[in-house]
Amino acid sequence: MSDSEYAIETSDAGASATIPCEAGTIKKGGFIMVKGRPCKVINIAVSKTGKHGHAKCNFTCTDIFNGKKLEDMIPSSHGTTVPIVTKNDWEIIDIEENGELTLMDEGGNQKIDCNLPTFPVGFGEEIRAAWNGGENAVMVSVQAAVGIEAIISFKKDS
């Protein structure tokens, strides 16, 4: 056996992208996985204990990456999953013609696997216009959950 057969491409601690949580403990403004998508809870309606003995939580949510409205109903004592959501600030170094970004954080680390956002419509072009071919310093906030990353806001430094 040669060493090339054991080449390890990435290192990962094996941590999960979601954590289990009881449905009754999730609050408005929190995050929940609905139909395999990370969502932010807009509203929770709790029904009373019924014939089968469980109060039900009716969650109204929006997908944190594409803004679609989703709903889910889960008994309050049953388990569900909550995505681990992170948010980091990066400075734009370069924007390619195809929308690929080169970003740098405060520590000097570069990120090249991010594209201009397509949601909401026109948001990517607003960022490109604010950056103005490198004339202005623009900071973007990148939100990540369950292996998906997207730019959610930007700020033009004066």
Automatic annotation (TrEMBL):
Residues 84-155 form the Translation initiation factor 5A C-terminal domain. It comes from Eucampia antarctica. It comes from the Eukaryota. eIF-5A seems to be the only eukaryotic protein to have a hypusine residue which is a post-translational modification of a lysine by the addition of a butylamino group. The lineage of its organism: Eukaryota, Sar, Stramenopiles, Ochrophyta, Bacillariophyta. Keywords: Chloroplast, Hypusine, Plastid, Protein biosynthesis. Translation factor that promotes translation elongation and termination, particularly upon ribosome stalling at specific amino acid sequence contexts. Binds between the exit (E) and peptidyl (P) site of the ribosome and promotes rescue of stalled ribosome: specifically required for efficient translation of polyproline-containing peptides as well as other motifs that stall the ribosome. Acts as ribosome quality control (RQC) cofactor by joining the RQC complex to facilitate peptidyl transfer during CAT tailing step. InterPro entries: IF5A-like, IF5A-like_N, IF5A_C, NA-bd_OB-fold, Rib_uL2_dom2, Trans_elong_IF5A_hypusine_site, Translation_prot_SH3-like_sf. It is found in: Plastid, Chloroplast. GO terms for cellular component: chloroplast. This is Eukaryotic translation initiation factor 5A.
